[in-house]
Design brief:
This protein is mainly β. The chain has one domain (33-111). It has one helix spanning 12-24, and strands at residues 29-32, 47-51, 61-66, 73-83, 86-90, 101-102, 106-111. Strands 1-2-7-3-4-5-6 form a seven-stranded antiparallel beta sheet, covered by helices on one side. A hairpin with a 2-residue loop joins strand 4 and strand 5 (86-90). The radius of gyration is 15 Å and the shape is globular.
Length: 112
């Protein structure tokens, strides 16, 4: 018998569409957080739950689309400031503040 390749190609745009649709329908969305930027609040491979958000509050954790990355990606960081319709985020385990993010790039609030 011949072998089959079951590898699924990752499509950021399609994944974002599915997540956004679920959140718009009022459904929470869970996935594993991969990274160290939010230690000790969120540990690597921890499950996080995303909820649709209609307002932003300082010190809460949100997921936003990072368009400054060479490849688009989702980032899960704490909101530390809002000024001129721009959001400023920082990972709990990072010294630097992330580049400014337009409010419309914030897609969900994280609830631990």
């Amino acid at each position: 018998m011949g072998s089959t390749n079951n590898k699924v190609e990752y499509n950021f745009e399609r994944s974002l569409e599915v997540i956004s649709h679920a959140l718009d329908m009022g459904v929470s969305f869970c996935f594993s957080f991969d990274g160290t930027s939010m230690i000790p609040t969120i540990l690597p491979n921890a499950k996080i739950k995303l909820f649709n958000t209609t307002s932003l509050e300082l010190n809460n954790i949100y997921v936003y689309i990072d368009i400054n990355s060479p490849t688009k990606r989702l980032v899960c960081h704490r909101l530390i400031a809002i000024a001129d319709d721009l959001c400023y985020f920082k990972g709990d385990n990072r010294k630097e503040i992330d580049p400014p993010v337009a409010m419309e790039m914030v897609i969900a609030e994280v609830v631990l």
